[in-house]
Every structure is written in C-alpha cells, then in structure tokens.
Amino acid sequence: MSITANSSGAAILDIAAPSRVRRLIRANMAVILPVATALSVLIVWQIVTVAFQIPRVILPAPSEIGAHFLTNLPALLNHARHTGLEALGAFVLATAAGATLAGLMAAFPLAREILQPNLVAFQLIPKIALAPMFIIWLGIDTPSRLAFAVFMSFFPVVISTTVGLSNTDPVSLRLCRSLAASGVQTFFQVRVPFALPYLFNGMRIASTMAIIGVVVAEFISSRAGLGFYILYSSSRMETVGIFSALLMLCIVGLVLFGAVVLAERIVRRTYLA
After folding, report:
1. 0.85 cut: is pTM over it?
2. Which 8-state DSSP code applies to residue 238?
3. Where are the domains of the chain?
4. pLDDT tens series, the chain, 273 aa
5. Which CATH class is domain 62-271?
6. How far apart are the first and last CA of the chain?
7. Closest CA to 225 of 206, 252, 201, 263
C-alpha cells in the first residue's frame, strides 16, 4: 500500500515539475528572449570572425572585446563616471523642465496653442547638427555638454506628458466639476495620475537621448568620458577599444533606463494605489 502511494506521489511530482518550469519560463519570457537573442548574435559573431579570419582592426571577436573590456575596466569606469553623471544631470533637468512646461500648457490652453506647434517644429530639426552651436555659446566644458543633452532629451518628456494631461478621462473631469473640486485639486488628483504613464514613457525615451546628447557633445569638446574614449581609440585604430566603450555605454544606458522603470513601478504602487 505504501509502495503504491509513494510511486503515485513520485508520478505526480514528475508531472508537476515540468509545468512549474513552463510557468517560470513564461513569467520570465521578457528577459529570456532578449538575452537568448543577444547570446545567439554573439556566438554567430565569434564564429564568423574566427572562421573567416577577419582582421581585428575591421571587426574584433566578442572574446577579444571582452578581454579588452576587463583589462581596461578601471579606465572605462572612470570615463563612464563622467558620461553617466552628465547624462543623469541632463535627464533630471529635462524631466523637470518638460513636466513643468507640459503642466503649464495643460493648465492654460492659450499657452498650449502658442507653444505646442513650435515644439513640434523643433522636433523636426536635426538636433545633432546644433551641437557646435552649444560649444560656441557655452564653451567647451560641462555646461555646453549638459545643455545640449538637455536639449536632446527635453522634447520627448514635454510632448508625451502634454498628451497625457490633455487626454484625461472626461467622465472623471465632469465628476470633479459636479463635486465642486477646485482646478488645483482636479489637476493633481485626476490629471496627474492619468498622465503618469505618459510621463514615464517620455522619461524612458529621454534617458537614452540624454546619453546620446552627452556622447555627441564629448565627440566635439571633452577630455574625459566615453565619447572621448571612442575618439581616442579611433585615432589609434583600436577597434576593440571602440567596442569596449560601446559596451560600457550600453551598461550605463541600461542602468539609467532601469532606474526609470523602477521609479515608475514605485510611483504606480504609491501614487495610484
């Protein structure tokens, strides 16, 4: 009797185990798929560079990039500190300025009619072409790089947040009016919670644009930073150094992007609870 019970219990465990694994895989599919894709690309890249004996100066193998990255990690971290701090500062300034301007445009329709067409027009300008102007206006130090990065990352925040504040649920707005809620109460208790997903969408885009803005500015005027490291490696024909700097840029970008995603989850749990 006990042997039968034990065997049936073992059979149930054997059936349940694969189902738990499948559920675990489904729950983490958003992580598994990108990681698996990246690993597949790296494996194919390694095989191609070795099989066809591609020169290192043209396309180094991932193993060579990894070795160079680890060997020069202290220098890369030092340059990443300069780029990361400037990108973080630009992102914070762009988010604050963009959210403030979006709030003004949502509160005052006249301001929206005046400013929104101009913002859309500025979006059409190739902003990278304006980088030398910031160097002329603000010099070759941090202020010019910071201002250009803010200029690059400001527009996604203001446009996305304006859309969220302007498209608040009309039923909720009518309910606020029927309850004699003030304009300030309606704005902060109805419009802002509704616009939070739009704000964070703009912030996610701005986090990447801030890093791009800083790196572009470092190409023009900098003696430190990952943009400077890329130019330095390029001048010495060290392609592996360029890829190492790009890898560090990906890490910095993922950290900033992940911080925005984490902040969104915290705000959703507290503000929208």
Report:
1. no
2. -
3. 2-51, 62-271
4. 444 545 555 444 455 556 776 777 776 677 778 888 989 999 999 999 999 988 988 999 999 999 999 999 999 999 999 999 999 999 999 999 999 999 898 888 888 888 888 887 877 888 888 888 888 888 888 888 999 999 999 999 998 998 888 887 777 777 777 776 776 777 777 788 888 889 999 999 999 999 999 999 998 888 889 999 999 999 888 999 999 999 999 999 999 999 999 999 888 887 665
5. mainly alpha
6. 53
7. 252
